[in-house]
Amino acid sequence: MHRRQLLNLLLAGTALLLPWSAHAVQIRNARLWKDADKLRLVFDLSGPVQYKTFTLSAPERLIIDMSGARLSGDFSRLPLANTPIHSIRSGHFGQGDTRIVLDLNEPLQLNSFQLPPQQGQGHRLVLDLSRAGNAPLQIAAAAAVPQPERAPNKPHPKRDITVVVDPGHGGKDPGAVGARGEREKDVVLAIAQLLAKRLKREKGFSVKLVRNDDFFVPLRKRVEIARQHQADMFISVHADAAPRLTASGASVYALSEGGATSATARLMAQRENGADLLGASTLLNLKDKDPMLAGVIVDMSMNATIAASLQLGGSILGSLAGITSLHQKRVEQAGFAVLKSPDVPSILVETGFISNSRDSQRLVTARHQQAIADGLFQGLQRYFEKNPPANSYMAWLQESKNNRPA
Ligand SMILES: [Zn+2]
After folding, report:
1. How many Å lie between the centroid of ligand 1 and the Cα of residue 304?
2. pLDDT tens for residues 222-240?
3. Distance from the alpha carbon of residue 384 to the mean position of ligand 1, in angstroms
4. pLDDT tens, residue by residue, 109-148
5. What separation in Å is there between the alpha carbon of 162 and the centre of ligand 1?
6. Which domain range does residue 69 map to?
7. Residue 338 near residue 399, CB atoms below 8 Å
């Protein structure tokens, strides 16, 4: 083929593509119908759309990508109560594409198709969701009082809330070292073990320690342990060091996707990340997915888990306030590698300053270690009472409290 012919062909192709790219399809609205055995979600569009769908598990998600589509509607008012859809999120990726993520309570089968304008309706993308073998979805009527998401005759699963407790540093990495040789790795192991013991005593909690002895665990491995156990919460226990020896008290950190909230937070993140530096991309177990698409999902779940982490952090600061002085009165945020788990809300607690002689003298005593562990436990418990994970024993407890006659 001559070069000119090739060029003409390319130009022709571009011309054909132009109408798609010049006029982005608008996603104007979403509507939801509940049927005995089917859930129908309809997107009202300004025109036909190119789309694809795929699913991800643990947690179950259904992803709908619409190319050249812009979101102009609002999904927040969809009546999702009593449906297998837990939440709907959306975001932009690529050049003007939109991704919609349905967080599902269980795996569902999807049948999707587009409808042209008819009977006063415009272009539509229809998603029909059903259980395998068309088993009934057991959805209550829309007007009914919201019920828990389980079928009424099934027993409550009352599953345990899984907390992964991560004693910082260990082995070749001592962490901060005090004036009298106090080592962060020993102090935080003792506190973490006491916290684990306290959680094990409490009905409805199960706990996993990242290390139960003095050995080194890479940051990446710590995050993997949290994800492997499908943890409801990851809590990393540390004790600070600062060049200014008067610095004292406890602080709580959550991950920030953007910049650090303070210079201290930035320095802390650099120091805690120092043991083994790594990039966020190596943490993600989404290798089989298009990396760009995977990135959008990660961003979205990151935002949700950071919000939960900040709430838990606030609760823990509240309970530590009675036990130790606070270095920071609010939850600080920075790019801690150990907190970069897209699905698991994660916080890092600096229990005090090893570099401060008063703090470190207290931190090595069994009595203060127990008090800090109790404070962490109370903070966790208060958080989960307010935000019980679906199907947990704590959720069952809160539901039966609410249903008790006044
Ligand atoms: Zn540390």
Report:
1. 25
2. 988 998 898 999 999 999 8
3. 26
4. 888 888 888 878 888 898 888 888 777 775 433 333 344 4
5. 23
6. 24-134
7. no
